[in-house]
Design brief:
41% helix; six-stranded antiparallel sheet; alpha+beta; single chain; 20 helices
Amino acid sequence: MPEGPRGRPERQRLRALRELDAEQHRLRPAYKLWGYTNPFAKGWLLTRGSAEPPVDRWASTSVGPWRLLLDPELELRRADAGDVTVVILGQAFDDRGPQGRDRIARRLLRAATLPDASRSRQQVDEAVVWLSGRFVVIVRHGERLDVHGDPLASRSVYWHRGPDGVQLGSHSALLAEAVGGLPSAQARWALLHPDHAAPFGRWLPGLITEHDGVGQLFANGALAVDGASVEHRRCFPLSDRVELPVADAAEAFRAELAQQVRNWASIAPTTVLALTAGVDSRAVLEAGLIDLRRARALALTYHPFHQPAKSTRSDLEVASRLAAAAGLRHLTLDVRPLSADGPMHRLHARTFPVWRRYAALAGALYVGAPARAATIFGVGGAIVTGMTKERSDRTLSPGLLARKFAGSAFGDDPVLHEAMAAWMARTGFSEPAMRGHDFYDLFHWEHRMSKWAATGYAEYDLATIPAPVLSSRRLLLAALAVPEQARFDGAIYRAIGARG
């Protein structure tokens, strides 16, 4: 039968409405999926005790004599051979990019089962340090564990030694709950110190975590767990620093950054780029523009609209124009203070009962950002351009690191000096271990990223899939190969945006 004069337009209208509904479904925020019932989101707990899952829907699996409890939203890959098990939690990528993800656990298993134990550990170390992404690798040899994090330690690993032996987990509070509660005296001393006035929010120094008796894995290290013993051993850098011409380093950096955008765009149905007026997110946009367009990515910018004069207003204005020029749809979020009796406050307070890095942003993401999305953040860019420009003091000491951590009179507190000395001893932070890299850069990388940055990612886990595209040692080493002043001047980023 011939189609009426309004038949085709009506079909087009209905198809457009169905597409609108499908897109709204794809972009559903976390509160529509989980309804404020996902504390310790994308979390895990490895225990030999009888701990119950902190959330009813969590899954459980055996890893030799250990029991692994985890949020089903956390990716899990594993490989087994005899009394050796390799577990990968989160997103890990090798040099094959998205196509290589399924083979990584088997490749690590081959290294872990070499007959020479010393060579086996060395091979595992070397294989893991060149992986990128946001992950934890657990290698079990009978009852002994080796635990590695990703290049920026952006997926935290905490440990506690209790009556049931050593337990490991994704959140300090998760371990505290598992053992029936732990004090927080050290954390409160640091956070409530009258001279602790960090410009980006107070955070915890040295080995201090949210709960007393809870230790942490730091970037460029690995944990060796054997019985009641937990050793933190350094496994990077592997070789001496090499200086490269800016052009060569910038090309290696750009290519690796583009690869990281491709990697993260492959893991979820939606890709989101956190876009600001800053150079870090613009570099991600320029290096990954083709793949961001191919993924139909969204740009996302947040701003507290109740504070119209706040500096992020320029982020919103610039990012809006930049997203339009790049052909990306732009999503804006209003960052409001959490209501003290609201459901997001209760959710966040259970996961982070002692310290809040940016709870309001976590709340904004929870109600406005796509939950099933790889949300790309450029955190870590200060490693590229140099966080600390004033480097005249070349004598590495606990006091110097305390002052650089604090940026205030807190840096002169002798107790803080002791905390930094303990951190240096635990992580093997010494000039010979830097292999020619500037200790100022590695202090920012290993301390700030493992603590301040990783806590931010854990907060965002409540709402979305955080994607740290700078979590790649190939990328970071390319940046650190550039002469110091050129780094400070942003030569790497300028080269990425060069138009020929």
